[in-house]
Amino acid sequence: MTPPEMEARIVRYGDLKPCRTAFIDAHTPGSDQKENFTIIGGGVSEAADQHVHLTIPHGFNIGAAGQPPKCRNSLHSHRTAEVFFVLKGRWRFFWGRWGKAGEVVLEEGDIFNIPTGIFRGFENIGDDYGMIMAILGGDDAGGGVIWAPQVIEDARAHGLVLSEQGKLYDTKKGQALPAGVGPMPLLSEQELANFPEPTTAEVVPGYVARYWDMVALSDRKPVLVIGETGMLRDRPGFEVGFLTRGSSTTEMHRHDRPSVLMPVKGHWRVVWEGNAHYPAGEATLAPGDTMSVPEHLDHTAFPSMTGEAALYHVVATGDPAGPTWTA
């Protein structure tokens, strides 16, 4: 049985509340059908009506993007880490000032730790509605989104204006910038020169981990996917682990920070011991569910049914959430 105190820390896939006006490209043809979800933390939404499911600080943010086929997310950058794993569908990620410096296609379960400080975008190239889950570094996610200049110009042509404070105004609804507030300035050519243009060969080996490689490596013990000693060596302010049926255990463990469980395949049973704040109990998670486990709470997770099972685990490390680290 799941006590209400813990059920309140679980965001079920079927309960996710989308925002269709979260970002400046919400009216731009080709991007106007996407849905954005803010699961843990405030994220980087530019819209006032974005629903935040869990506001508990974790040291990182969890979000998601759902898009029909051929829908894309426009070129942007962040000051902190941005990590995606594919929950449903087939996705193409591309990067560079014009999105032509490099690209990679991700299948279900694959994960991409996008290098900080490059313009990036993504599109659903599958045949059905797709979903990618996102981890953003820091509790404030770096203070917002940095858009490629052409994205801001295209958005203005379709009625959306971003203020210099990062708030979105829809001229189609009669909204206008407040008195004394200017539009978000476009990056200058000098500023744009500071955004790297790495090739596919430079990015993919150190920043992409494939689902079946992780499955093979986690057949007996969980694998650290993102971390100082992980498959993708980085210190973005959090670690991402991966476990399967073979590496799951009924042995309890705890963390000194809140952690997050995110199934990608199969159903997972999470069991925890009680403490002064949370009664003992258990819960079952399905792909797309997100569970926040409180700090200092003994818990474990293991598959509850036969068949394929895989789960991502995220916990903050206390490292600066700024530019990502490379060896």
Automatic annotation (TrEMBL):
It comes from the Bacteria. InterPro entries: Cupin_2, RmlC-like_jellyroll, RmlC_Cupin_sf. Residues 69-133 form the Cupin type-2 domain. It holds the Pfam family Cupin_2. Signal peptide: none annotated. Gene3D superfamilies: Jelly Rolls (2.60.120.10). Transmembrane segments: none annotated. This is Cupin domain-containing protein. It comes from Roseicyclus persicicus.
